[in-house]
Design a protein that fits this description.
Blueprint (H helix, E strand, L loop, with lengths): L1 H22 L2 H18 L7 H23 L17 H11 L1 H8 L3 H13 L3 H8 L3 H16 L8 H17 L2 H7 E9 L10 E4 L1 H10 L1 H5 L1 E6 L2 E8 L2 E11 L2 E8 L2 H6 L2 E2 L2
Parallel strand pairs: 1-6
Antiparallel strand pairs: 1-2, 3-4, 3-7, 4-5, 5-6
């Protein structure tokens, strides 16, 4: 038993990394790894030829089942806000795991179908051959390769060839840095004098949409949202640089920017779940 436990513990960090990238939840990842341990304990190492590959397959199958259940039975809370995880969730641990992957990548992965997500994570992140992934998701190796390729295109987005992208990205990055630091002067330099910010009714403290006009109003709003900015990450939003704000591992708010001549002329703050679901998001 001691030898079996020791062998499993050597694999645990990698298995947890696989499960977290598939599920985006530290608590669910731990559950998937624990299930793998129970099956490993019942089977015994003597009946397994390649222990790392066997354990990876078990974790992947458990995650795939969880993803399919989540997709089939997902329900939005009445107030449109994500429900908190159970009491086992450690916010510090969750943040550490999210930082190791990237908030934007987790959000984009969450938009993939279960089989796409498993194929992409196993192949592109952990170099598992398609021949080994195919039985997990019930596809042929060729079909599995196509799923991973499609997922890769969705993750990377299609706007990389836009010649204006680096300039707009630089502006949005500067806005994020200034918002996080409460840098008044930097924000003034980035915002057009006639900038307009629109926030839908799910984004603000009031039940009605919010419109801020003029550089001073928008600057004050950005400074007040500095805490939110610390939970934000750069991403492509409908092909243009924008910001994702994540709460409890789920997409909560998106900021879409209009940039003209290195100045921000408009900001659209989106928190409506239906609008969020309709956005094309990708990792820069």
């Amino acid at each position: 038993m001691d030898a079996l436990t020791e062998r499993f513990e050597r694999e645990r960090p990698r298995l947890r990394a696989v499960a977290y990238r598939m599920l985006g939840s530290a608590a669910e990842a731990d559950d998937a790894v624990q299930e793998a341990w129970l099956r490993f304990h019942r089977t015994g190492a003597g009946e397994i030829g390649n222990i790392p590959a066997w354990l990876t397959t078990v974790v992947a199958r458990v995650c795939l089942s969880l993803l399919r259940t989540r997709r089939n039975h997902r329900e939005e809370p009445l107030d449109g806000q994500p429900e908190p995880d159970d009491d086992r969730r450690d916010p510090g641990q969750e943040a550490e795991l999210a930082d190791s992957v990237g908030l934007a990548l987790l959000v984009v992965l969450d938009a993939l179908g279960p089989a796409e997500r498993v194929a992409f994570v196993l192949h592109d992140m952990f170099a598992v051959p398609f021949d080994e992934i195919a039985p997990v998701i019930g596809k042929t190796p060729a079909a599995t390769r196509q799923l991973a390729s499609r997922a890769r295109r969705r993750v990377k987005g299609g706007a990389a060839a836009d010649a204006d992208l680096p300039r707009r990205r630089k502006v949005v990055e500067a806005f994020l840095a200034a918002s996080r630091g409460g840098d008044f002067e930097a924000l003034l330099a980035l915002l057009d004098p006639d900038v307009v910010l629109h926030a839908d009714r799910f984004a603000g403290p009031t039940p009605a949409p919010i419109v801020l006009r003029g550089v001073e109003s928008v600057r004050r709003g950005a400074v007040l949202a500095s805490e939110r900015a610390r939970a934000s990450e750069l991403a492509l939003v409908d092909g243009a640089p924008g910001l994702l704000m994540v709460r409890d591992g789920r997409l909560a708010v998106v900021l879409a920017f209009r940039v003209d001549a290195d100045r921000i002329t408009g900001i659209d703050v989106i928190a409506d779940p239906e609008r969020l679901a309709a956005l094309e998001l990708a990792v820069l």
